[in-house]
Write a structure and sequence with these properties.
By secondary structure, the chain is of the alpha/beta class. It has two domains: about 5-35 and about 75-290, 3-Layer(aba) Sandwich (Rossmann fold), CATH 3.40.50; about 40-75, no CATH class. It has helices at about 5-35, 55-65, 100-115, 140-150, 160-170, 190-200, 240-260, 275-290, and strands at about 40-45, 65-75, 80-85, 120-125, 130-135, 175-180, 200-210, 220-225, 230-235, 265-270. The strands form three sheets. Strands 5-4-3-6-7-10 form a six-stranded mixed beta sheet, with helices on both faces. A two-stranded antiparallel sheet has the order 1-2. Strands 8-9 form a two-stranded antiparallel ribbon. Strand 6, helix 6 and strand 7 (about 200-210) form a beta-alpha-beta unit. The longest helix has 30 residues, at about 5-35. It is globular. The termini are far apart. The relative contact order is 0.14.
């Protein structure tokens, strides 16, 4: 049974994100993702002005006349949302939890997709596959996805991105656009992500909270890992400790950015302390420039 509070959140997210899609993101989405996929349509005789790189040499040899392959734009794409539902996502030190921002991002991308006649599916994961919703194209379907992200109660607390990506590869054979929405508190997922990136258009949305990047100076502080349950007391008044912590977080940030760059995959950092609109717009503009 979905609570009234969750339904109100879903409605607020729908109003906000559909407004953004109608006013800002629909055209950006189309220019970035539509038309990137091309599928074979037919072979026809060469005509003056055709690109010689499209010549089908086998058919040309059989017919003793030049023939070219004709491709057409794929009119329908499949968008997959891979959403991290681990315990660390139920955290936020500002106004929203990371999982709530994940739901808004998913809604924004989904409404942009169905406005362009694309289908959207969902994989929710922790250190196991928690939920799979096959791709469909309708408003009611998107509202269901938002409800799932906001209200879902996972069986586990950990994170296994490798398993999520491998599952996605098994259920989505045809090339698709995949958004991996996570805080990436995991290791060893580079190889499956690299494999997925060669077949699909993989984009990482990395959720970051300011309290995960710098310790506040508040004296003795009990901290708990939400995924393992491990607790410890740290003295946050120790300047050296705070400096070491910030340095470690900066190194982690650079490592993750370099990992995506090394695979030629795009990534977008979303901070819980700031609006996600600007970084998402920046991402779309960057992709659009790259396609020119």
């Amino acid at each position: 049974m979905i609570s009234q509070e969750v339904l109100r959140k879903v409605r607020r997210i729908e109003i906000r994100t559909r407004h953004l899609v109608n006013d800002v993101f629909s055209g950006e989405y189309h220019s970035v993702f539509k038309g990137r996929g091309m599928e074979f349509a037919e072979v026809r005789e060469y005509q003056f002005g055709d690109d010689i790189r499209s010549i089908d040499w086998n058919v040309t040899a059989r017919n003793q006349r030049p023939y070219v392959k004709v491709f057409e734009e794929e009119r329908e794409l499949t968008v997959m949302l891979l959403v991290d539902a681990s315990a660390s996502e139920v955290f936020g030190s500002v106004e929203q939890l990371k999982i709530e921002i994940a739901a808004e991002l998913a809604a924004l991308l989904s409404f942009a997709a169905i406005k362009n006649n694309d289908k959207v599916g969902l994989v929710m994961f922790t250190d196991q596959i928690e939920k799979y919703v096959p791709p469909r194209n309708s408003r009611t379907h998107i509202l269901r996805l938002i409800r799932e992200i906001l209200a879902f109660e996972p069986e586990s607390t950990g994170t296994d991105i490798s398993q999520a990506v491998e599952y996605f590869l098994n259920v989505q054979r045809r090339r698709s656009v995949a958004f991996l929405i996570s805080d990436f508190w995991d290791q060893g997922f580079d190889q499956p992500l690299r494999v997925a990136g060669k077949k699909h258009d993989m984009i990482g949305f990395w959720l970051v909270d300011p309290k995960e990047q710098a310790l506040p100076d508040v004296g003795l502080l009990r901290v708990r890992d939400p995924e393992t349950g491990e607790e410890m007391v740290v003295d946050t008044s120790d300047r050296e400790l705070r400096t070491l912590f910030e340095s470690a977080m900066q190194s982690r940030e650079e490592e993750l950015k370099n990992l995506f760059t090394s695979m030629n995959l795009d990534s977008v950092q979303i901070r819980t302390s700031e609006s996600y609109i600007e970084p998402v717009m920046k991402f779309f503009k960057m992709r659009e420039r790259r396609l020119r």
